[in-house]
Design goal:
Rossmann fold, six-stranded parallel β-sheet, single chain, 18 strands, alpha/beta
């Protein structure tokens, strides 16, 4: 079956019309901020928003999120709700308010200094703070309370998103066992021996098993999760069926590679035929023949330092590309209250300055940076203008930038892709690299630039066919179909069936 907007609409009409759809995610798709004499709305950045907003729009659902904008409270109604998006509203955003001390502990602390490094396994030591854990528990309870309040007595599908909400599904299940609850974990799940060092590993797993269905990006992450359960809980784990039986309930674990709205991004790119180098030159100085592009949050998992070192090595090995090759990196500031991210920002700036000093001429420098979150349409235009996109994450659950470049980039563009991303399972016609191998990364840039045009076009066409077929509607359709089908499977088992 080819999944489209229409086929997902049909699924909703035929299978989900009796259910209220509630999405629960820490990230809000739009935030409101005071600006002089007005209030400005700003679209959020990140893969969860990119993937989920088309689905919530289509289903006309309700999105529960943390209100982070300083004007968020000023624009909601008495029920903390607002219709979104700002133009052609099609769904409801319900904001919850979190005390600053809990934001620091839940989001900046446990979520991003414990679970994030623990899950990505990129040699970054996770922090284990009881105070952060307590805040994490409290905020998860806030999200659970909001989901329960919104579901009320209605038949509801509650779809939780990501690692910031590992405990909420159990909290919801304990108070309303009749709800359909699922969760998608957007980042990697580490191997069991790494995960078990977390002092609250048991609590996290028990929280996750409040779901009827848990989705991961890759089969390997499913297996890692099942192994973690088997080594931590007295549960029956079936590795072949990918199920866990715990406390008389079954949880199904499946891989659902997330994707993008291919047609929407491709269409946006096609409408902007005059963007090209004329706009790029507003952000780049000097002439060039080849443009390389990187787009990501500023995060140590994204391999930005290694990429810059590879560009240094590339120009050292192949000096004929001096004054011909430039790299533009769009780096969205991220988690700026965390010391490690401040250090990374300084390290990136210093390394770029060193490389530019080493190779710059009177009218040219090799590396340029834009440090802000740009509108999606503008990012699509940068994709279209780039000869090469470099997605060289050290670890990544999926990486939707790779798929966005395929959809919006030029017909003869080349994708350099880390083999540590989930996207590598699907985009096999990219130039695959080990993101830690600086020499290989440098040679990959040379290979991309030297590749014959016919080969570049053939590779891009194959990747486009993959992304067009395995789009975000397919991802959501399969998850929602499975979770509704599982509702017909008896969950409560006899005690003898639950023994490991």
């Amino acid at each position: 079956m080819a999944w489209t907007k229409q086929s997902l609409k049909k699924l909703v009409a035929e299978r989900l019309s009796d259910y209220q759809f509630i999405l629960v995610a820490q990230a809000e798709p739009y935030a409101h901020f005071y600006a002089k004499d007005s209030i400005k709305v700003q679209r959020g950045a990140g893969g969860v928003i990119t993937a989920m907003e088309p689905i919530v729009k289509l289903i006309h659902g309700l999105w529960i999120a943390y209100g982070r904008g300083n004007a968020d409270k000023a624009v909601v109604n008495e029920s903390d709700r607002i219709r979104m998006p700002p133009v052609r509203s099609s769904y409801t955003l319900r904001r919850i308010w979190i005390a600053k001390r809990n934001v620091l502990g839940w989001y900046y602390g446990f979520s991003n200094q414990t679970l994030w490094p623990l899950s990505h396994s990129v040699f970054e030591r996770p922090a284990f703070s009881k105070q952060d854990w307590d805040a994490y528990v409290e905020v998860n309870r806030q999200f659970a309370d909001a989901a329960l309040a919104e579901s009320g007595e209605k038949k509801s599908i509650i779809w939780l998103q990501d690692y910031q909400l590992a405990l909420a599904s159990r909290m919801i299940r304990e108070r309303n066992p009749d709800l359909i609850i699922g969760q998608f974990w957007h980042i990697p799940w580490p191997v069991a021996d790494i995960f078990k060092v977390c002092p609250w590993a048991k609590d996290i797993l028990e929280g996750m098993l409040g779901n009827q269905l848990i989705g991961f990006q890759r089969i390997a992450y499913c297996k890692n999760f099942l192994s973690s359960v088997a080594k931590t809980l007295e549960a029956k784990v079936d590795m072949d069926a990918m199920t866990v039986t715990y406390n008389n309930r079954i949880t199904y674990v499946r891989a659902y590679p997330i994707s993008i709205d291919y047609q929407a991004i491709a269409s946006s790119s096609a409408k902007n035929k005059k963007f090209g180098k004329s706009y790029i030159t507003r952000n780049l100085t000097g002439k060039y023949d080849f443009l390389s592009l990187g787009v990501e949050r500023l995060d140590y998992t994204k391999g930005v330092l290694e990429r810059i070192m590879a560009i240094d090595r590339f120009l050292e090995k192949y000096p004929e590309y001096i004054e011909k090759f430039v790299h533009l990196n769009i780096l969205v500031p991220s988690r700026t209250l965390i010391k490690r991210y401040e250090e990374l920002d300084r390290d990136v700036e210093t390394l770029i300055e060193n490389v530019n000093f080493k190779y710059a001429t009177a009218h040219w420098q090799p590396i340029h940076v834009i440090k802000e979150a740009l509108r999606p349409q503008l990012v699509n235009n940068f994709y279209k203008s780039a000869n090469i996109a470099q997605v060289t994450s050290l670890a990544d659950g999926m990486n939707l930038v790779a798929k966005e470049y395929v959809a919006a980039g030029p017909d003869d563009g080349v994708l350099i892709l880390s083999d540590q991303t989930g996207a590598a399972d699907e985009l096999t016609d990219a130039i695959m690299v080990n993101p830690y191998d600086i020499e290989q990364l440098a040679d990959a840039i040379k290979r991309a630039l030297d590749m014959p045009k016919d080969e570049r076009k053939a590779r891009m066409q194959k990747m486009r066919e993959v992304v067009a077929k395995q789009n975000v509607y397919r991802w959501a359709g399969k998850f929602l179909t499975d979770i509704v089908d599982l509702k017909t499977v008896p969950e409560t088992l006899t005690q003898s069936d639950t023994k490991p």
